[in-house]
Amino acid sequence: MLDRLIKTYQKNKRFIVYCLIGFTGVSLDFFIFYLLNNQLGIYYQYANVISVSLGIANNFVLNAFFNFKMLDKFFSRFLKFYSIGLLGLATSALCLYLMIEILTLETIVAKILTIFIVTAIQYTLNKKLTFKQA
């Protein structure tokens, strides 16, 4: 049993670390979103742009240095990562609109659900495009 667990960990180590790093970005995103929207009264779409952008930058730096350990073509990789992040932002904005305006979910509930959707999409794209092994 322990041997199987170790093999599973080794096989999925990069994904596990990506998720842990992603958690820091999601935490930052969520905290900044909450602060801007709920505490400062900034419109949720504007708050979302700012919070997601900070989460993207956080995740890129941590993934580049600690997970994928790819510091070559740093700026080029950042542009790819950020472009995928912008796709995530567009997806996030659409999901928030649908969940808040159409389904009338609470803003925070919609944000939490949106984070899960966007994370799955971004991991797949970043693994295949941004941090692709040469």
TrEMBL record:
The chain crosses the membrane at residues 15-36, 42-66, 78-102, 108-125. The keyword 4Fe-4S does not apply. PANTHER family: PROPHAGE BACTOPRENOL-LINKED GLUCOSE TRANSLOCASE HOMOLOG. InterPro entries: GtrA_CellWall_Glycosyl, GtrA_DPMS_TM. It is found in: Membrane. Its main location: membrane. This is GtrA/DPMS transmembrane domain-containing protein. Coiled coil: none annotated. GO terms for biological process: polysaccharide biosynthetic process. It comes from the Bacteria. One of its GO terms (cellular component) is plasma membrane. Residues 18-131 form the GtrA/DPMS transmembrane domain. Keywords: Membrane, Transmembrane, Transmembrane helix. Belongs to the GtrA family. Pfam families: GtrA_DPMS_TM. The keyword Zinc does not apply. It is a multi-pass membrane protein.
